[in-house]
Amino acid sequence: MKKVVVLGAGRVARPCVQYLLENGYEVYAADISAENIDRCLGGHPNGHAVVGDAMGKLPEVLEELKPHLLICLLPREFMVPAAEACVNAGVHYVNPSYVTEGMKALDASAKGKGLTLLCELGLDPGIDHMSAMKTISEAHAKGGKVTSFVSLCGALPAPKDNNNPLGYKLSWAPSSLIGASRREARTMKDGKVIIWPYGETYHHARFVEIQDMGWYEAYANADSTPYVEYYGIPEVREIFRGTLRYVGWCEMICKMQDLGLCSEDKMDFTGMTYADVTRKLVGISKDACIRKAVSDFLKLDINSTVMRKFEWLGLFDDRAVPIQNGTMNQFVECLYSEKLEFAEGEQDMSLMEDRFIIEYPDRKVLVRSTLVDYGSSDEDFSVARLTGLPPAMGAQMILESKITKTGVLTPAMPEVYKPELAALEKMGVIFKETETEIK
């Protein structure tokens, strides 16, 4: 029986671990939380717990267990160190995170040892790449040119459970959600690169209608321009990879930026309430009206929707801040963690749509490929399942020698995306595709 170590037993790990166990692998789930590990393993006889800081002593863990493959589900800063330890130990490696320069630097060493390091195998990145490559390769095979590509994805509360003023709930780590508020974004329009620095992307949100799902807003997510080469579409004139949110999110983030809530500067919160921190940001004393001061500072009506959102979130509350020191991002994380949790029985939704304008010799078409998937707080969130299943499937293909290429790989290869999409479809993860001729 082949051994797999799954490093990290957080939200996305249970679907990954259970898939591997159900397919006959011996799985070692490693995490500092025994409770998280127990949830992932579910008492399966082929599941084993590695409780403690496995990342801190990963070379020793690999030497002791001698696994065939490791899947890293830890935060992104651990991806390269984990991969490096695997290369040194002669162990195949899979993760759902973006390929960084540090990961690329391991390519030659991995090839030299005959190892596969398969990355970007989750929901986004992952399923988005696989679906896009399928459509692009089919279009090219028919002589088409992809002149526009727009990819949109969001992890959201299901419409029936979208019941708070912010239109968002946490199905993944709040720190990652907050970090996106300062990210630079790059897109391409009419063949020209557009750069929006340090969170400015939220000022350029666009309204989009998703097939059968109504209207949302989308903001550009990180750098879209490398995907011209990644997807093999040098002919493309427009490329936009964006994040979907319910309408109103981007305006709120813009005002949070203006208020200073997205700062990485350190602050001492000792003895302060949430309202005290907000007063300090706008420079008023306790005697002043906090709501009026904030609305004046942000040039908003005191009864505007953004002000109502801030009030609901707790920025005006005279409750103690639960951390003594930290950044404003960590301050906001405290509020998000408290207010944006799913209630028992509520559903999350993974929403993805790719749009292609394809020019054939005899016609021009718009192709839309849409995925809507639901999960539950009682079992597994959709975003957990769609992030956790692809790396487990990728691990299975490596261990069964269905993927034989070595070095640092992504799911842009047909030997990855074709079987993965087919396997996901059998599990109900299905894209609806439509084609409309453009006159």
Keyword list:
439 residues, alpha/beta, Rossmann fold, 3 domains, 7-stranded parallel β-sheet, 16 helices
Structural notes for this entry:
- With 439 residues, this protein is α/β, with parallel strands linked by helices.
- The chain has 3 domains: 3-119, NAD(P)-binding Rossmann-like Domain (Rossmann fold, 3-Layer(aba) Sandwich), CATH 3.40.50.720; 127-252 and 343-383 and 430-437, Dihydrodipicolinate Reductase, domain 2 (2-Layer Sandwich), CATH 3.30.360.10; 262-339, no CATH class.
- Helices cover 35% and strands 26% of the residues.
- It has 16 helices and 18 strands.
- It has helices at residues 13-22, 34-41, 58-65, 79-89, 101-104, 107-112, 127-141, 174-179, 227-230, 249-259, 274-282, 290-297, 305-313, 328-339, 382-399, 414-426; strands spanning 3-7, 26-31, 47-51, 69-72, 92-94, 116-118, 145-157, 185-189, 192-196, 206-210, 214-220, 238-245, 266-268, 325-327, 347-360, 363-376, 407-409, 431-437.
- The strands form 4 sheets. It has a 7-stranded parallel β-sheet, sandwiched between helices. A 7-stranded mixed β-sheet has the order 10-11-12-7-15-16-18. Strands 8-9 form a two-stranded antiparallel sheet.
- A hairpin with a 2-residue loop joins β15 (347-360) and β16 (363-376).
- α1 crosses α2 (34-41), α3 (58-65) crosses α4 (79-89) and α11 (274-282) packs across α12.
- The model has no long low-confidence stretch (mean pLDDT 94).
